[in-house]
Specification:
Elements: H1 3-16, E1 19-24, H2 29-32, E2 37-39, H3 41-48, E3 55-59, H4 62-71, E4 76-79, H5 94-103, E5 108-112, H6 117-120, E6 125-127, H7 132-138, E7 143-147, H8 150-159, E8 164-167, H9 180-189, E9 194-197, H10 203-206, E10 211-212, H11 215-224, E11 229-233, H12 236-245, E12 250-253, H13 268-276, E13 281-282, H14 287-304, E14 314-315
Parallel strand pairs: 1-2, 1-3, 3-4, 5-6, 5-7, 7-8, 9-10, 9-11, 11-12
Antiparallel strand pairs: 2-14, 4-13
Bound molecules: 1,3-dihydroxyacetonephosphate (13P) and iron/sulfur cluster (SF4).
């Protein structure tokens, strides 16, 4: 079968079996093309609450599929690749954070959405990279415990100097591996390019960027800019998607190492198997976990929506 034939079969089967395919922007182009909705973590979470279909296939990583299940517990939610975890989401567990909360009882606990459903049950509010500054800025409490990503947390702290933000040593191993030297080299090699960076990168890299934002934020910025060249400081699939969508512009990965193996563990054939009903992993969460984790996800949707919050979704097929 050609790629096109596999895609046609996926589109036919997803309609026949009442499946909505959600794909994070880090998925490969062939998967993005068969998805009903694509976007960054915030856009996907927001949309997940309104999916009309009985079944949802999440092409992304585990915490994203869990978020869909929490928002739509009556739906059958499938994660496209059972091995697609997010290493950052697995860095901190409920017991660890419960212990820290005891030491800092007057802090509001802000959880990056890249956390497990279980950990979300003891947090006050979730954030994503596109909504973190807005949401933390709207919290009444000055004292914030921000988990798990210390790089995103440092970016929020720099934008909100009036807040007292406590950070822990967590983060994305893919983005955090980009060095200041990588950024200096990229600048030297492409002196006319603008540098667009995800806030999961270390502060020394973020401080060199012309624009800092989520995956959708970076894509929207590059598409709308009059500039012709861009250094892309996030997973390398974003450079590829942008090159595909904007053939008259040039996109250079900030580092060749910006590859998330977990996001890339889903293939088009996995998607085909999932819509046939014999692939992926169904997500099950108990009612108590769903009810408690839902509070902090709903608070994120409520505080994160509105001006400056949500990039537009791509709607396909
Ligand atoms: P976004 O919020 O930009 O989609 O990022 C999710 C993620 O996992 C980035 O590494
Ligand atoms: Fe997790 Fe980093 Fe991969 Fe995003 S890029 S899913 S934060 S490991």
């Amino acid at each position: 079968m050609t790629v096109r034939e596999v895609q046609d079969e996926i589109v036919r089967l997803k309609k026949e079996n009442d499946i909505c395919i959600l794909a994070h922007s880090y998925q490969s182009q062939d998967i993005i093309e068969v998805a009903d909705f694509t976007g960054d973590s915030f856009a996907l979470s927001k949309f997940a609450a309104t999916v009309p279909n009985k079944n949802v296939l999440m092409c992304g990583v585990r915490f994203m599929a869990e978020t869909v299940k929490i928002l739509s517990p009556e739906k059958r939610v499938i994660l496209s690749s059972p091995v697609a975890g997010c290493p950052m989401a697995e860095q901190m567990d409920k017991e660890l954070i419960e212990g820290i909360k005891e030491k800092y009882p007057d802090y509001t606990v802000v959880a990056y959405i890249n956390t497990t459903a279980e950990l979300k049950t003891i947090c006050d509010v979730c954030v994503t990279s596109s909504s973190a500054v807005k949401i933390v800025g709207e919290l009444e409490n000055k004292n914030i415990l921000f988990i798990p990503d210390c790089n995103l947390g440092a970016y929020v702290a720099q934008k909100l100097p009036d807040k007292n933000i406590k950070l822990l040593q967590g983060g994305c191993p893919v983005h955090a591996a980009v060095t200041k030297r990588d950024a200096e080299l990229a600048r030297k090699q492409h002196p006319d390019a603008e540098m667009l960076v995800h806030p999961e990168c270390i502060p020394a890299v973020v401080s060199m960027a012309d624009y800092v934002g989520s995956t959708s934020g970076i894509m929207n910025y590059a598409k709308n800019s009059d500039k012709k060249e861009f250094i892309i400081g996030t997973e390398n699939s974003i450079s590829e998607h942008l090159q595909y969508e904007c053939p008259d512009k040039r996109f250079y990965p900030l580092s060749q190492g910006l590859i998330c193996k977990n996001m890339k563990s889903t293939t088009l054939i996995d998607v085909l198997n999932c819509v046939k009903g014999d692939g992926g992993e169904e997500i099950f969460l108990d009612d108590k976990t769903i009810a408690e984790a839902l509070k902090c996800i709903n608070k994120m949707i409520q505080l994160g929506s509105g001006a400056g919050g949500v990039p537009p979704l791509s709607i396909r097929n």
